[in-house]
Specification:
Elements: H1 2-31, H2 34-41, H3 43-46, H4 60-70, E1 78-82, E2 89-92, E3 98-101, E4 108-109, H5 115-129, H6 138-163, H7 170-177, H8 185-215, H9 217-227, H10 260-270, E5 274-280, E6 290-296, E7 306-310, E8 317-321, H11 328-339, H12 346-376
Antiparallel strand pairs: 1-2, 1-5, 2-3, 3-4, 5-6, 6-7, 7-8
Helix pairs in contact: 1-5, 1-6, 1-12, 2-5, 6-8, 8-9, 8-11, 8-12, 9-11
Length: about 375
């Protein structure tokens, strides 16, 4: 009776949420290596020819001047520097796009094609919001996806139980854990559904669970409860939430912001193993800290970053926030956020997450095919 109840729960959850699950799985497969694919497609602008040995780099101030000369209307909001000498310096300018400047020659470029980036943004919108757009519609899409994600979790857990044979023996287990030749399409779909489910379900359980704090506010609050962390008055915060703004000491009358290169130099001294530096650009007379986000080469977790806030008038460090400074809930959230994409475990994790999502696409197809035959033709088959 228990097994039969689980079977019908599994079947109904799959039929109700199957379409949305299929969409999430397909887009998840595409997005597994999103950053790498976009970087490859835009390599004509992002990558530069290696310069001769001992060639000096232009200062950030000089690069800003070159960008202003080439694109007078552009107002970049941030700049990203890479330690790789073959990488151009990236100036992000919102809707105007990103401009890449050769740090040795000052040449300003944009990718010849941004189709890959636009495609990935579309896939992201479908994955997160089912393609809903607008401030009123996107929350609905997010809610639907969140509910269907919970149904997917139920499917993965109940599927693992249902796919296990009642009597354990190699002869009974073998058809469940590997593919075999089948005489009919129905037998093939049943074998594929069991085998793909057996191998993919553990990963899919992780992917669905780590999506809960992303989809629901209560999911984020649950992390605070489980870690025994006091919930902030503003509600649960992700690991990517900006740290509190440091107070800038009063500056002498007529003071202006020091050159951006001084902040870069200070960050390099504090974190000599830096991999990327992201500087948020502010107006020259703004009485707010200058913020740099730093990724290090051997950071752990590998997706962790350190935020540095400097006095804009003296380049003195005002505040430093890294993974170690986060409370337990936000540290766990940092792991769950990037376990969902596989990035927390590097390219191997991304590959496994993408492969599990691809398996999820086949599970949706075979699940619908088996359900169709159950209700509209052929002898019934229960797992």
């Amino acid at each position: 009776m228990f097994r039969k109840t689980l079977f019908w729960l599994h079947l109904v959850a799959g039929l109700v949420a199957g379409v949305a699950i299929g969409i999430m799985c397909f887009t998840g497969t595409v997005l597994a290596f999103e950053k790498e694919l976009v970087a490859w497609a835009e390599r004509d602008a992002r990558q530069i020819a290696p310069p001769p040995a001992a060639t000096p780099r232009l200062t950030l101030t000089q690069l800003q001047v070159r960008l202003r000369e080439a694109q007078p209307e552009v107002r970049p909001a941030s700049v990203v520097l890479h330690r790789d000498p073959r990488a151009a310096v990236a100036f992000a300018a919102g809707r105007s796009g990103t401009f890449y400047v050769n740090p040795y020659t000052g040449e300003v470029r944009q990718p010849q094609s941004v189709a890959m980036g636009e495609f990935m943004r579309t896939m992201t919108g479908v994955h997160r919001y089912l393609g809903f757009t607008g401030d009123t519609s996107r929350p609905r899409g997010k809610l639907i996806n969140g509910i269907c994600n919970l149904a997917f979790f139920v499917l993965a857990v109940t599927g693992l139980y249902l796919w296990m044979p009642r009597a354990w023996s190699w002869r009974a287990v073998q058809p469940v854990i590997w593919f075999r030749q089948n005489a009919t399409a129905k037998a093939r779909d049943f074998n594929w559904h069991n085998t793909i489910g057996f191998w993919c379900a553990p990963v899919l359980i992780v992917l669905t669970l780590t999506a809960v704090p992303i989809s629901f506010r209560w999911g984020g609050e649950l992390l605070y409860t489980l870690t025994g962390t006091a919930l902030p008055s503003t509600g649960p915060q992700s690991s990517g939430a900006p740290p509190p703004v440091a107070l800038v000491p009063p500056a002498p009358a007529g003071s202006s912001q020091v050159p951006a290169d001084l902040f870069i130099a200070a960050a390099e001294r504090l974190l000599p193993a830096w991999k990327t530096l992201t500087l948020r650009l502010t107006s020259s007379n703004a009485a707010q800290p200058v913020t740099l986000t730093v990724r290090e080469q051997a950071s752990w977790p590998r997706t962790a970053s350190t935020t540095l806030q400097f006095d804009p008038f003296t380049a003195q460090l005002l505040r430093r926030d890294g993974h170690a400074e986060l409370n337990a809930a936000r540290q766990v959230r940092g792991w769950t956020r990037f376990l969902h994409t596989g990035e927390a475990l590097g390219w191997v994790g991304q590959f496994v997450a993408g492969l599990a999502c691809l398996g999820g696409c086949f599970l949706v197809y075979t699940g619908f095919a088996l359900s169709w035959r159950r209700f509209f033709g052929g002898p019934k088959t229960e797992s």
